Here is the input.
Amino acid sequence: MTDVSHYDYEVPRELIAQMPLANRSDARLLVVSRAERSITHAHVRDLPDFLRPTDCIVLNDTRVLPARLAGYRMATGGRWTGLFLSADEQGHWEVLGRTRGRLKAGERIMLVDRTARDAFGLTMVAHAGAGVWIAVPDRADTASDLLDLVGRVPLPPYIRGGRMVERDRERYQTVFARHPGAVAAPTAGLHFTTELLGRLVDAGIAICRVTLHVGIGTFRPLHTARVEDHQMHAEWGEITAANVERIEACRRAGGRVVAIGTTSMRVLETAAREGQLRPWRGETRLYIHPPFQFHAVDALLTNFHWPQSTLLVLVRTFGGDALIQQAYAAAIQQRYRFYSYGDAMFIQ
Here is the structure.
């Protein structure tokens, strides 16, 4: 059994990126070779130089919802802030909220738009535990339409305390986002531009897509004393038969499967749990920690991750514990930018 402190480290606060770079692919790229046990330095725009024409990259095409909510308690006028998590077919929302005092079932929240004007009410129906409420909006529009009215970009708290600026509406979204449903960005994908994707295609590298609607649980820290005891939240994902066939064709040609981000990796490894990659659709709670047998992924492009997080555990499991610790130490020494708007690492 492994104590969570094994996955702790310190990063200077000034290295936590607060704004995105002007050009996405200008982010630095720390390249880790597992075979050679080496660490070199490049930029994301150089990625085609590290790939082979038979390789395929796998992108997560989820689209981030404007899930951050603000409003006030209609009974007391007290401030309320929240995060939209999901909605069911009956129009019931799951929201994670924060306010002074204790909410009661039946209480109503007035949500305000981005100019602080009243928009519509949200009735709290039942407490689901851990700060999560089941709620019903006053309006019958789709959750996506209502969030467009009132939602803010769901930045993590280490970026400006979660306070968005207008630029975040475009930059906290990948250029290949398609399917709305995430409440956090698949951050490795934020480094890609249409120009870089075009260069990869021109180099003969296949581009495949999966979907994982990233939930808040992915980014929460480990909450148990032992790494192995942590339980993941469920997240909805999919890989189609067409994308499975494209990936398998690359494999048959001798190419590598390169997951762009830990979310893409979790879809691929969920779909390959029986040893062979298959079409898959549903919820996953896959938690990658030692010991873990990888069946689908050969290389990984990922951002740097928060201490004592499931994502850091995943990356060190894939890249090798000691080698990735060395890589993080090198990134700090070389003043890489950390976390969602930061630089990246390529593990091959």
